[in-house]
């Protein structure tokens, strides 16, 4: 019998409720095949395309299997980039929200001490990039004794980024008695080797896409001289008039150049590349996800796995150096059943790359000799300028529908005044109509505490706490915007 409903997997009510709130009605193909196996604690090697619902494929079983009572981390997910680590952590947080799963992300170029503090609190699931994960293991801040499950996400990308030794070092630090899941978009020989060395009799699941590039994405390529690219970009954006667009270039310098050009023309845009501070990169991605601007100019740091709703266009200002990156880049659009357009600029020097991409995707990238005509650019310019001056529509975050039911409260007391989660639970449960089931994630920091109140009871709790003592004293309690 094929499973078509999450209820068939005997998931707990808390997880089912999150899936319902996330509007995950039925499992995707990869979820359908992997979740039942993962729930039986078996090792799995999964080949699956980006955008297939891969994160929830391991996120759901991880959230289901962790024991809430246990304070030390029970699962580790390794991801190749910082952006992906943060995104996976957020997705896991949403899936585990009603079970009050605590997930934390470890990644470089960001405060070690802050991550260390997070790890000291109850943490069920750790998502990390290899380098920083090793640092925390070495420092003793990430205790791995209780890790029961390891997920290696985007394994092919990890290996091509040269992370193999670090991954092995991490695996050596984990208990032998554990489940390992390896996810990869492709299964080259080195992935096979990795799987042979570290997976025990794995179930191999391959989700074959008909072609590597998603059929919903319309792919167009323009022949252009290098020095005419910027003008072509201007014309193409006018003709296409995207709602939300990622423009990929191969170097940081070019990203900067395009960003400066488009900023001068008042395009609502921002940029992301590896030369920027991590905090700035996170902010840019977050603002783009929220739809605060329409054009993101990026190097390949933004190409992999990043899931942003409703990107209508991807423009390859430069054809990618690696053919795999073509698939990842254009996979930013056409997600979750939507249509997308991918436009690639091709110079004379790119012929070899085009044929490599063609043989890799099994499709012929049709080259247009004609760039948009002056007439059509002129005709469509007014409409383009109208959209440029209009504020983009703000996108709802994936967890937004949940937030209607959940209110996050800030209490102005924390560890320094000896506040503990149990004090918060005690106070909240003493409010009439409240039970432990209505309390979500509690995060006690130095001088602040954050607590989530579930099941639409936030207003009532907030009102009551204006006059009720917490740990013997009145405290300032406010709602936090989510
Ligand atoms: P991923 O491949 O993990 O990047 O997921 C691609 C997109 O599909 C994300 O926006 C997920 O939130 C969404 N998604 C994952 N599983 C489901 C599902 N069962 N139903 C609907 N959307 C899903």
Automatic annotation (TrEMBL):
<dbReference type="InterPro" id="IPR005580">
    <property type="entry name" value="DbpA/CsdA_RNA-bd_dom"/>
</dbReference>
<comment type="similarity">
    <text>Belongs to the DEAD box helicase family. DbpA subfamily.</text>
</comment>
<comment type="function">
    <text>DEAD-box RNA helicase involved in the assembly of the 50S ribosomal subunit. Has an RNA-dependent ATPase activity, which is specific for 23S rRNA, and a 3' to 5' RNA helicase activity that uses the energy of ATP hydrolysis to destabilize and unwind short rRNA duplexes.</text>
</comment>
<feature type="domain" description="DEAD-box RNA helicase Q">
    <location>
        <begin position="4"/>
        <end position="32"/>
    </location>
</feature>
<keyword id="KW-0347">Helicase</keyword>
<dbReference type="InterPro" id="IPR014014">
    <property type="entry name" value="RNA_helicase_DEAD_Q_motif"/>
</dbReference>
<dbReference type="InterPro" id="IPR001650">
    <property type="entry name" value="Helicase_C-like"/>
</dbReference>
<keyword id="KW-0694">RNA-binding</keyword>
<dbReference type="InterPro" id="IPR050079">
    <property type="entry name" value="DEAD_box_RNA_helicase"/>
</dbReference>
<dbReference type="GO" id="GO:0016787">
    <property type="term" value="F:hydrolase activity"/>
</dbReference>
<dbReference type="InterPro" id="IPR012677">
    <property type="entry name" value="Nucleotide-bd_a/b_plait_sf"/>
</dbReference>
<dbReference type="InterPro" id="IPR014001">
    <property type="entry name" value="Helicase_ATP-bd"/>
</dbReference>
<protein>
    <recommendedName>
        <fullName>ATP-dependent RNA helicase DbpA</fullName>
        <ecNumber>3.6.4.13</ecNumber>
    </recommendedName>
</protein>
<keyword id="KW-0067">ATP-binding</keyword>
<dbReference type="InterPro" id="IPR028619">
    <property type="entry name" value="DEAD_helicase_DbpA"/>
</dbReference>
<feature type="region of interest" description="Involved in 23S rRNA binding">
    <location>
        <begin position="407"/>
        <end position="482"/>
    </location>
</feature>
<feature type="short sequence motif" description="Q motif">
    <location>
        <begin position="4"/>
        <end position="32"/>
    </location>
</feature>
<feature type="domain" description="Helicase C-terminal">
    <location>
        <begin position="231"/>
        <end position="381"/>
    </location>
</feature>
<keyword id="KW-0690">Ribosome biogenesis</keyword>
<dbReference type="InterPro" id="IPR011545">
    <property type="entry name" value="DEAD/DEAH_box_helicase_dom"/>
</dbReference>
<dbReference type="GO" id="GO:0003724">
    <property type="term" value="F:RNA helicase activity"/>
</dbReference>
<feature type="domain" description="Helicase ATP-binding">
    <location>
        <begin position="35"/>
        <end position="205"/>
    </location>
</feature>
<dbReference type="Pfam" id="PF03880">
    <property type="entry name" value="DbpA"/>
</dbReference>
<keyword id="KW-0547">Nucleotide-binding</keyword>
<dbReference type="InterPro" id="IPR044742">
    <property type="entry name" value="DEAD/DEAH_RhlB"/>
</dbReference>
<dbReference type="InterPro" id="IPR027417">
    <property type="entry name" value="P-loop_NTPase"/>
</dbReference>
<dbReference type="InterPro" id="IPR000629">
    <property type="entry name" value="RNA-helicase_DEAD-box_CS"/>
</dbReference>
<keyword id="KW-0963">Cytoplasm</keyword>
<dbReference type="Pfam" id="PF00270">
    <property type="entry name" value="DEAD"/>
</dbReference>
<dbReference type="Pfam" id="PF00271">
    <property type="entry name" value="Helicase_C"/>
</dbReference>
<keyword id="KW-0378">Hydrolase</keyword>
